[in-house]
Design brief:
Strand order of the largest sheet: 3-2-4-5-6-7
CATH architecture of one domain: 3-Layer(aba) Sandwich
Structural class: alpha/beta
CATH class of one domain: Alpha Beta
CATH topology of one domain: Rossmann fold
Distance between the termini: 71 Å
Oligomer: single chain
Bound molecules: 5'-deoxyadenosine, iron/sulfur cluster
CATH superfamily of one domain: Methylthiotransferase, N-terminal domain
Number of strands: 21
Number of helices: 13
Shape: globular
Length: about 475
């Protein structure tokens, strides 16, 4: 059957050039304003912080069309699922969710179901949804978020399914409306895409090339957040150390950190640093600005040279550990976390042992650990793998036990200490308890009175666990 829609192409998405990306300013077409009056939307978000921030943009666009956000799928006229493609289990979860929406669509044929995010950039997923999940009305890619108003308008007008997924290097679009989901902490994109092409990773294909926002736009966004009372920003990029390189200007991430620090926002975080390009300007900026939080996430992925080479990580074990030791020495009191993949194709027992010994060396505060997931279209997908899943699962468990041991060991230093906590609100588990994070990004659950979201409070730590701390509010 001939398809009347264009599929994305991971092959085309591989392309890169050295040009600075084009920058556009968004404005919402008058035609789309008001079409959401008296209607509601619901967004389900999977995956990383970049997706969280994209969902806030989708919400901003729908709010500008007159829609209202709602908590329940059953109340919604538009349901958006913002998907993640980084591992197979995330994809399966989304397909299950889309399957479950069939019933709602049957009960309300005017319901519009839209699928966005990284899965929408994969040709196999788009084909599958178009053929097998007929309840889906719109598939829109990571480069097509600002088309959402038009796509919704078109579906309402002609009742036909729409696919708009471009496999392009990407551009920078400014002045897009945003509805932030939190009133005290904000995600701020500083760059998009990734050019690192780690051999296992789908992100460089789904999110285009590395491209930086103009520093003026970033600083203006943070200044506005300060004036709105925000207490924390997290500067986002797949690889923030590469900030500015594509703009061909003499201004790096270290310079940006200094300028963002000058806005006076109480807390600055950034995600994610690749060990590549973690330069001395960056270290100096982190050291010199009190509002840059003492927390660094530095993914290692593996502690074995052969695996690191096959992963195309661009550093050796020795280089990573040397950088880690330098950061640890220059930034005392900082917390360090990492990402680790176990079971990369043909990972030997010895190679896995190297990862364990790297964890023993670094004594991380925490690590996000994953079993390697084969991603169609990436170089690693073609690599032979003779390691059983059972072995990979055992390795993950062994690794997690080691990670928990060091997490606990690191947390001991907080026992009986007074820490500053930015309050997120009532704890999810216990309604008489508040929760929030310390500067080192430690989760604290504490008892207290007259506390509200966004307060910066002092808490005395009474109990220390591996992945959280308990405490009591100190009245000042
Ligand atoms: N399989 C397992 N984990 C992966 N990650 C990225 N791609 C894969 C994959 N194919 C992990 C990496 C990365 C984190 C965000 O997700 O550890 O740092
Ligand atoms: Fe994926 Fe590597 Fe880019 Fe991170 S740096 S998004 S792991 S390709």
């Amino acid at each position: 059957m001939k398809k009347d829609y264009l599929l994305p192409s991971l092959n085309d998405a591989r392309k890169r050039n050295k040009e600075t990306s084009e920058k556009f300013s968004f404005s919402l077409d008058e035609r789309y304003k008001g079409i959401g009056e008296h209607k509601k939307y619901h967004i389900i978000t999977h995956g990383c912080q970049a997706n969280q921030r994209d969902s806030e943009t989708m919400a901003g666009l729908l709010d500008a069309m007159g829609y209202e956000m709602c908590d329940q799928q059953k109340d919604a006229d538009v349901i958006i699922i913002n998907t993640c493609a980084v591992r197979q289990n995330a994809e399966e979860k989304v397909l299950g969710e889309i399957g479950a929406l069939k019933r709602l669509k049957r009960e309300n044929p005017d319901l519009i179901i839209a699928i966005g995010g990284c899965m929408a950039q994969e040709e196999k997923t788009v084909s599958l949804i178009m053929e097998k999940y007929r309840q889906v009305d719109i598939i829109f890619g990571t480069h097509n978020i600002t088309s959402l108003p038009k796509l919704i308008y078109d579906v309402i007008s002609d009742k036909k399914r729409k696919v708009e997924v471009y496999s392009k290097m990407g551009e920078i679009i400014e002045s897009v409306p945003v509805t932030r989901f939190m009133s005290h902490k904000a995600w701020v994109n500083i760059m998009y895409g990734c050019d690192k092409f780690c051999s296992y990773c789908i992100v460089p294909y789904t999110r285009g090339k590395e491209r930086s926002r103009d520093k003026k736009d970033i600083v203006a966004e943070v200044e506005e957040l300060v004036s709105q009372g925000y207490k924390e920003v997290c500067l986002l990029g797949q690889n923030v150390n590469a900030y500015g390189k594509d703009l061909k200007i003499d201004y790096t991430f270290g310079d940006l950190l200094n300028d963002v620090a000058k806005t006076g926002i109480p807390r600055i975080r950034f995600m994610t640093s690749h060990p590549w390009d973690f330069d001395d300007t960056m270290i100096a900026s982190i050291k010199n600005n009190k509002n840059i939080m003492p927390y660094i996430h530095l993914p290692i992925q593996s502690g074995n040279d052969e695996i690191l080479r096959k992963m195309n990580r661009r550093y050796t074990r020795e280089e990573y550990l040397a950088l880690f030791d330098k950061l640890k020495a220059e930034l005392p009191g900082f917390a360090f976390t990492t990402d680790i993949i176990v079971g990369f194709p043909n990972e030997s027992k010895e190679a896995f042992e190297d990862t364990l010994s790297a964890v023993r060396h670094c004594e991380y505060d925490n690590a996000f650990t994953f079993i390697y997931s084969r991603r169609e279209g990436t170089p690693a997908a073609a690599m032979e793998d003779h390691v059983d899943m059972e072995v990979k699962e055992q390795r993950l468990q062994q690794l997690n036990e080691l990670v928990a041991y060091y997490a606990n060991k690191n947390n001991q230093r907080f026992k009986d200490q007074v820490v500053e906590v930015l309050v997120d609100g009532l704890s999810k588990r216990n309604s008489n308890v508040y929760s929030g994070y310390t500067p080192e990004n430690k989760l604290v659950n504490f008892t207290g009175e007259n506390v509200k979201t966004g307060d910066l409070v002092k808490v005395k730590i009474t109990k220390v666990m591996s992945f959280s701390l308990n405490g009591e509010l100190i009245k000042e």
